[in-house]
Amino acid sequence: MTYVPHTDAEKREMLARIGVQKIEDLFEAVPAAYRFPDIELPKPLSEPEMMAELRAMSERNDNVQDLVCFLGAGAYHHYIPSVVNHVISRSEFYTAYTPYQPEMSQGTLQAIFEFQTMICELTGLDVANASLYDGATALAEAILMACDTTGRAEVLLPAALHPAWRRVVATYTDGLGIRLATVPWRDGITPPAEVEQRITRETACLVIQQPNFLGSIEDVAALATIAQAAGAAVVVAANPIALGLLAPPGEQGADI
């Protein structure tokens, strides 16, 4: 149970017990220049007035709505249709992870089927999982699949792969005897010559991120040809939105 002092006498007694005389003494460890000053709040505003003021403040900044975005690292210039928010906010979708009710599961399964069909069309592959947690864990699972199917234990990861994804892969493969090797990038992409130099008959798979962490478009077909010649699987971590414009990885030699 938490005790909250109410009267001035109770507050003085509490301060005395902990060895200080006033509240400000509790913050002596914080340099004076960094202590929060007294606040002079402006007069209250109605919600429309507040929104207008905040919008005016935000418009002082340049933003990706007005400028082309070259941030990379997964932050690409793209458009999300307004219907997406309406669909994903429906309770039968976001609460039906394990839908027992037939009438609910029927709609959910239909949505999953449509999702898988669209992913297959975008990737040019025969099968789509529905689904794994995110891109990083999906990549790790794809690598484990490639190692199992090839019976090999070496993985080529591009230096242009998302560093957080690399850490997830390292966590998943730790203790399994899987070796992770890095292919350096040049001019923002993974050079086929570097892959050809590093790939061996022990390589289970070559990973390609499309677009890569730097925001560059990889030559998937050229890289896949080198990997397949060595008997290695080709794992492409693709942005499905980008695949609305780029060639499907499955048509360029991707296995997973």
What does this structure look like?
The protein is of the alpha/beta class and about 260 residues long. Among the domains are: about 40 residues; about 120 residues, Type I PLP-dependent aspartate aminotransferase-like (Major domain) (Aspartate Aminotransferase, domain 2, 3-Layer(aba) Sandwich). The model has no long low-confidence stretch (mean pLDDT about 85).
Total of DSSP H or I helical runs spanning 4+ residues: 9
Strand order of the largest sheet: 2-1-3-4
Number of strands: 4
Mean pLDDT: 87
Terminal CA distance reads 56 Å
Structure characteristics:
9 helices, 39% helix, 9% strand
Produce a short descriptive summary.
The chain has 256 residues and is α/β, with parallel strands linked by helices. The protein has nine helices and four strands, in the order ααααααβαβαβαβ. Among the domains are: 82-123; 135-252, Type I PLP-dependent aspartate aminotransferase-like (Major domain) (Aspartate Aminotransferase, domain 2), CATH 3.40.640.
Describe the SSE topology.
Layout (H helix, E strand, L loop, with lengths): L7 H10 L29 H12 L23 H7 L2 H4 L7 H22 L11 H16 L3 E5 L4 H11 L5 E5 L8 H7 L4 E8 L9 H10 L3 E6 L18
